[in-house]
Amino acid sequence: MASASFRSTVVAPRRAWSRAIGLAACQIALVASGCGGGGESVSAPPRAPAGLTFRAPFADGATIPARYTCAGRGERPALLMGRVPSDARELVLVVTDPDAPGGTFVHWTAYGIPPRTVTLPGRRAHQGRNSAGGIGWTPPCPPKGDRPHRYVFSVYALRAPSGLEQGTEPGDVIGALDGAIASGRVVGRFGR
Fold first, then answer.
1. Among positive and negative, which fits the CA dihedral 136, 147, 104, 32?
2. Cα–Cα distance for residue pair 121/20, rounded to 1 Å
3. Does the pLDDT value for residue 72 go beyond 50?
4. How many domains does the structure of the chain reveal?
5. DSSP string spanning 21-54?
6. pLDDT tens digits for range 155-174
7. How far apart, in whole angstroms, are the C-alpha atoms of residue 189 and residue 64?
8. Domain that residue 113 falls in
9. pTM tops 0.85
């Protein structure tokens, strides 16, 4: 189904519209407390053995470029990975802000990702709800005046398919990560 994939020929206008809606929702939430303060808090994702190679368009620990945040266009960053264990059956991506005022804020979940995928989340991935209430990516947008927040981009390899459907709640996606056989992560920072 085209709406559940990332096929650029079919969903490019939808993606642009979805990104605009997500950014607008983030900016509306900003009036109250900034993205990261208004949504439901979830538990932090579990630790899993390291081993996956995982790269973002910024260095680990560096500032996230404005184009991927509410200070820019709010684009979803392309993520690259490798060294997936041969017994992995699914990859799951989770992006969180553990420094959000109300607790861990989920900016993005993607799952059902085939283990041979190199660019995340890939064409066949499902996307879950974020803590702002939308589906898919919501850009970093911490409250003005806060110290820069940490945005943790994590990918997990699962030994069995999760069975998660499009639009799954953040807590359910994080709950499906127990028993992950490998992981990788990159942390970016952003403040306003």
1. negative
2. 19
3. yes
4. 1
5. HHHHHHHHHHHHT-TTSSS---PPPPP--B--EE
6. 999 999 999 999 999 999 99
7. 6
8. 2-190
9. no
